[in-house]
C-alpha cells in the first residue's frame, strides 16, 4: 500500500499503517540522535520540559552533513535506530507517533510502539543525498553545541519511508526473514 501523510499525525492515522506500506511524509519532523536523546532523557529525569513537544510528532534519527550552497541541508541519511532504544520507550509514552531510522528495534521499543499506537519507519540507508532533496528547510531548535547531533526542525515534502513496525507490532524485518528462512531449496 502506498500512502501520503501529513506530519505530525495522530494515533488514528498511525493505526491505519501496516508493516510494508510505502509512505510519503509532508510537513514538520524533528531530528535527534544519541547525544540529543541523552539530553532529553536527562531533562525528563529532572522534571524539565523537552525542547519540543513529542506528542504526535516524528523523530528522524539523522545527523546531516554540511549544506551545500543553495541547499537547506547536506546529505541526510538515517542512523541506526537501536542506539536510541534505551531512550525511546519514555518518548513513546509521551506521545511520540513515529521514528525514522534504519535497523532493528528492541523488544522494549516494540512494546512501546504497540502500547502507544505508534510506528517505526525506515528510510533507505546510503541514499542521504537523495533524501535531502525532500527537505525544504532545516532549523536548529535545541542543543546547538552538539553540532550535527543538535535537534533540528525539518520541513519536508514527499519524504519516502517504509513502515517497518506497525502499531500492532507486525515487523517487516521479521516477516521477510521468515519468508526467506522458509524458502524451499530448488
- Assembly category: single chain
Coarse shape: globular
Number of strands: 7
CA(first)-CA(last) distance: 31 Å
* Nearest-integer average pLDDT: 93
Low-confidence stretches: none
Helix content: 25-40%
Estimate the strand proportion. 25-35%
How many strands, what sense, and barrel or not for the largest sheet?
Answer: 5 strands, mixed, barrel
What spatial order of strands do you see in the largest sheet?
2-3-4-5-7
Q: What is the radius of gyration?
A: 16 Å
| Tally of helical runs | 6
From N to C, what is the helix and strand string? EHEHEHEHEHEEH
Q: What structural class results from the helix and strand content? A: alpha/beta
Word description of this protein:
The protein has helices spanning 11-16, 34-45, 88-93, 107-116, 128-132, 172-181; strands at residues 2-7, 22-31, 58-60, 98-101, 119-122, 135-142, 151-165. It has a 5-stranded mixed beta barrel with strand order 2-3-4-5-7. It is α/β, with parallel strands linked by helices.
Amino acid at each position: 500500500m502506498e500512502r501520503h501523510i501529513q506530519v505530525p499525525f495522530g494515533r488514528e492515522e498511525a493505526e491505519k499503517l501496516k508493516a510494508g506500506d510505502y509512505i510519503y511524509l509532508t510537513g514538520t519532523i524533528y531530528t535527534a540522535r544519541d547525544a540529543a536523546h541523552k539530553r532529553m532523557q536527562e531533562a525528563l529525569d529532572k522534571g524539565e520540559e523537552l525542547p519540543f513537544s513529542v506528542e504526535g510528532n516524528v523523530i528522524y534519527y539523522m545527523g546531516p552533513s554540511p549544506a551545500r550552497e543553495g541547499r537547506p541541508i547536506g546529505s541526510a541519511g538515517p542512523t541506526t535506530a537501536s542506539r536510541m532504544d534505551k531512550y525511546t520507550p519514555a518518548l513513546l509514552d509521551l506521545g511520540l507517533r513515529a521514528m525514522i531510522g534504519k535497523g532493528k528495534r528492541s523488544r522494549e521499543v516494540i512494546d512501546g510502539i504497540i502500547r502507544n499506537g505508534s510506528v517505526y519507519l525506515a528510510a533507505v540507508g546510503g541514499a542521504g543525498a537523495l533524501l535531502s532533496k525532500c527537505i525544504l528547510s532545516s532549523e536548529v531548535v535545541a542543543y546547538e553545541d552538539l553540532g550535527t547531533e543538535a535537534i533540528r526542525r525539518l520541513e519536508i515534502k514527499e519524504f519516502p519511508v517504509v513502515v517497518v513496525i506497525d502499531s500492532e507490532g507486525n515487523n517487516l524485518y521479521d516477516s521477510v526473514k521468515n519468508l526467506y528462512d522458509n524458502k524451499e531449496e530448488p
